[in-house]
Design a protein that fits this description.
Layout lengths: L9 H17 L10 H21 L3 H27 L5 H36 L1
Helix pairs in contact: 1-2, 1-4, 2-3, 3-4
Length: 129
């Protein structure tokens, strides 16, 4: 897979939708949260599609898998931050739940992609022997 194809990946497309949803939800937050939870949510959300794209642009499957792991970490951060924002009543619970559902779907897709890349790495390693 080459860098020009990352935009065709369903996981990247859904991660971009998630990032957009997070930005829309954050626009509902109190102004004083701009540098707190708002910033953290936005950075986590943007990190997911960015790392998918960055990893896809790398020259090796091993590098790609490493960046997918980073995207998984950012997804886990978001899965922690969104319920916190809901508990603090910072935005519409429905909007936060929609974002969390998207985040869960992206997380599942990232796990499957990581498993696929790990299998590919193992095959490449066994072929080298």
């Amino acid at each position: 897979m080459t860098a020009s194809h990352f935009r065709e990946l369903e996981v990247w497309q859904l991660a971009m939708k998630l990032a957009k949803e997070v930005y829309l939800v954050c626009s509902q937050f109190p102004r004083e949260e701009r540098y707190g939870l708002t910033s953290q949510l936005q950075r986590s959300a943007v990190s997911i599609p960015s790392n998918i794209a960055d990893g896809n642009a790398r020259g090796s499957t091993r590098d790609y898998a490493r960046f997918i792991c980073i995207a998984q970490g950012s997804c886990a951060e978001l899965q922690t931050q969104l319920p916190l924002a809901r508990d603090l009543q910072m935005a519409s619970p429905v909007d936060l739940d929609i974002s969390l559902e998207l985040c869960d779907r992206v997380g599942q897709m990232l796990r499957r992609l990581n498993q696929s890349l790990s299998r590919r790495i193992n095959i490449q390693s066994s072929d080298a022997i």
